[in-house]
């Protein structure tokens, strides 16, 4: 049976449906056969395929999509700002004290007057003043004194953060049985080190001398013991130091002391430790320590070390991670 052939007018009527793929298989086959034989209809089909414009998106829909994109971007920026703010506030809560008169006093009062930290805490209402302070490397040292019956004196060590403020590492204070003179403290700090030669913990040791009201005290004498457990080298060294000012603060690292005394050995393994009390000397080198002796009551003190930043850094990392996840969710919620 001879197949039915379509006329050109019928093919032209069917072309829109044919191009859209809406015709039945038999009709599609007949239209295709006709197009193979008819150049005019074939050209018309080509023109229709190339000239069919893309359906424009309504302006109302475009405005809605742009509004959604702006809202999404704003939400992401807001999430980022909240994340940064929360992380920074947590960091600043630890590195909280500025090296200013009020900042140094706040650090002293927050620790030395806190009875929860020690039974020998300076009682509330006792006048306290900072006698001296010193910035050295990344550390801030503060010497303070209280006008109380214990004649409390103390030394604090703080570490500088990236915000330029400090957090307290340690605080030592005790009754000082002298109306003037020099006290000392041993301070240790463990820091993490990573370089081309070593990765791990490094123990830093310091000797801190704090002088108070040393108008007639020209110098002070101090004795150290030293020991190197690796070489079994040990002994005693001593030195007389001039008093630089009436109120002063001097800090020496263990490494500096070893060099000063000409002692060999790795500062990590050779330790210098105080072996006597500080002796006060006049300008003639005479011991005048007992001239400044006073009675104090109660007698006692405390050495308080504060925890490291590991937990804080974990919390900051958690905040940042949550912020990143929220931002990713904002941009991926439709996918």
Q: What gross morphology would you assign?
A: rod-shaped
Biggest β-sheet description: 5 strands, antiparallel
Total helical elements: 7
Trace the largest sheet across and list its strands. Answer: 1-2-3-4-12
C-alpha-based Rg, rounded? 41 Å
Number of domains: 3
C-alpha termini separation: 55 Å
Class by helix and strand content? Answer: alpha+beta
Low-confidence stretches: none
Please give the number of β-strands. Answer: 12
| Residues in helix, % | 25-40%
* Succession of helices and strands: HHHHHEEEEEEEEEHEEEH
- Residue-averaged pLDDT, rounded? 86
Beta fraction = 25-35%
Oligomerization category of the chains in this entry: single chain
What is the gist of this entry?
By secondary structure, the protein is of the alpha+beta class.
Helix-strand layout with pairing:
Blueprint: H1 8-19, H2 25-37, H3 39-51, H4 59-94, H5 101-112, E1 128-136, E2 139-146, E3 152-160, E4 166-175, E5 181-194, E6 199-212, E7 219-228, E8 233-242, E9 248-253, H6 254-260, E10 271-274, E11 279-281, E12 301-305, H7 310-332
Antiparallel strand pairs: 1-2, 2-3, 3-4, 4-12, 5-6, 6-9, 7-8, 7-10, 7-11
Domain Putative zinc-finger: 11-41
Organism: Butyricicoccus porcorum
Transmembrane segments: 73-91, 311-331
Jot down its keywords.
335 residues, 12 strands, Znf_put, four-stranded antiparallel β-sheet, transmembrane helix, membrane, 3 domains, five-stranded antiparallel β-sheet, Putative zinc-finger domain-containing protein, alpha+beta
Structure description:
By secondary structure, this protein is an alpha+beta fold. It folds into 3 domains: 8-51, no CATH class; 63-94 and 306-335; 98-299, no CATH class. Helix content is 35%, strand content 30%. It has 7 helices and 12 strands. The chain has helices at residues 8-19, 25-37, 39-51, 59-94, 101-112, 254-260, 310-332; strands at residues 128-136, 139-146, 152-160, 166-175, 181-194, 199-212, 219-228, 233-242, 248-253, 271-274, 279-281, 301-305. The strands form 3 sheets. Strands 1-2-3-4-12 form a 5-stranded antiparallel β-sheet, covered by helices on one side. Strands 7, 8, 10 and 11 form a 4-stranded antiparallel β-sheet that branches. Helix 1 (8-19) packs across helix 2 and helix 4 packs antiparallel against helix 7 (310-332). The longest helix has 36 residues, at 59-94. It is rod-shaped. The two termini are 55 Å apart. The model has no long low-confidence stretch (mean pLDDT 86).
